[in-house]
Amino acid sequence: MPFRIGSGHDVHCLVEGHALVLGGVHVPSAVGFATHSDGDVLSHALVDALAGAIADGDLGTHFPEDDPSAEDARSLDFVRHMVQVVRLEGYEVANVDSFVVLGTTKLRPHLDGMRRNVADALGVDLAQVSVKARSNDGLGDVGAGRACEAWANVLIFPIVD
Q1: Are the beta carbons of 157 and 3 closer than 8 angstroms?
Q2: Cα 69 to chain centroid, rounded
Q3: CA-wise closest residue to 39 among 21, 23, 27, 25
Q4: CB 154 within 8 A of CB 95
């Protein structure tokens, strides 16, 4: 099969006094992620999608929480690493379609920055990356602003020499 698809999802609780980083963008907010790395759910979903496309585990397989080198790491660096793994398997990224769900913080002003950061980390053109935002209409922990989640889908294709 020449093309392969991967999908990823991540969710983290939001707590006061921590940074909110999405797609490598520091989003102004009173709450953020209290996690091992920067907690960037968009980047984590992308890693899962990339790993899934080549049937090579997930975020925890490549960057376990008990790995001291991942402490306070930038999650976009995880994406950069995973793209190299995908390329070593003989594939390139065709495109990414993703969205972030966060109920109480407006993300639209930050979407272009997220797209640029993701495209840069993947080594692709901006036109190959879609990042959308949803509010969850006040429903559940995400809609109430107690959590944030992201989904990502990635299409890869074989490198042609």
Answers
A1: yes
A2: 19
A3: 21
A4: yes
- Model pTM? 0.94
Tell me if 96 sits within 8 A of 79, measured CB to CB.
no
- Amino acid letter at 11? V
Q: Return the SS3 of 39.
A: coil
The beta strand positions in the chain, using DSSP E, are 4-16, 21-22, 25-26, 31-33, 91-101, 129-134, 147-158
Quick one: tokens of 96? 């990414």
DSSP β-ladder status, 147-158 and 4-16: antiparallel
Regions of the chain where pLDDT drops below 50: none
Q: 130: how many CB neighbours lie within 10 A of its CB?
A: 16
User: Residues 2-26: pLDDT tens digits?
Assistant: 999 999 999 999 999 999 999 999 9
